[in-house]
């Protein structure tokens, strides 16, 4: 394979010269070395690459086709070598990413913007939606998703981080309705629930035995926006299961009260998801690497308890 690759620059030099002798001078080798290399290449390919006469040489139709492909390939190789030698990966083109609305604003957008700043050729297109988009049908390069992923052989997923969830309610609601002593009593209370793709998000909390209790809330208020769930909960609408980072300030100020601190909720995982391809594009790889390296620390800061 190495000898085959080494023959390509010799072939290109010969194609761009009026004779093998001129190509040999450019390459600082003998004319015989050029002629033997071309002969071996023609034998391996099973075609004649050059029309030869005693006075001139020219490419055959097959030779012209092969020359164009080799020239492009060598240009790409030289470009890659220059990038690696410079010590900086260059990426260009549009990166289309689907992100959850609130989490995207808080964490993903700043990190991808920072990535774009270091790569001036990168165009960033963010779509903020809690709807689980079809990446392939809708043309997204990458998506960030939270919670359990659906099975799909067409997609690749990588865990980026996780965030904690809390059950909480306003002091006004708890004074009016009472504070549940255990998760079993949640069925007696009003719930403010998050709905995604027409399905209520089930609450997953740890029980006294260390296992997970899954609750389908009997929700009086249902909405597909986490900010709205938080606002209704602050207004006394009932009990909600929300990301800690979203209600952190309200819990610290006392506007919301956390329930069942002895039985913490199960954390929600955050994933990067992209279409399965034989070769991952550089722009997607750089985006995923950025999120993997920076998101955990950002989540830790967002969930700081003081």
Which features characterize this protein?
306 residues, D-Maltodextrin-Binding Protein, domain 2, 5-stranded mixed beta sheet, 10 helices, 43% helix
Low-confidence stretches: none
Cross-sheet strand order for the largest sheet? 4-3-5-15-6
Average pLDDT level: 87
Structural class per helix/strand content? Answer: alpha+beta
> The CATH topology of the largest domain is what?
D-Maltodextrin-Binding Protein, domain 2
Indicate the proportion of strand residues.
Answer: 15-25%
Distance between the termini: 61 Å
- Structurally, how many domains make up the residues? 3
Q: Order of helices and strands, N to C? A: HHHEEHEHEHEEEHEEEEEHEHEEH
The CATH homologous superfamily of the largest domain: Periplasmic binding protein-like II
- CATH class of the largest domain equals Alpha Beta
How many individual β-strands?
15
Q: What global shape is seen? A: rod-shaped
Estimate percent helicity.
40-55%
Pfam families: HTH_1, LysR_substrate
Domain HTH lysR-type: 1-60
Keywords: DNA-binding, Transcription, Transcription regulation
GO molecular function: DNA binding; DNA-binding transcription factor activity
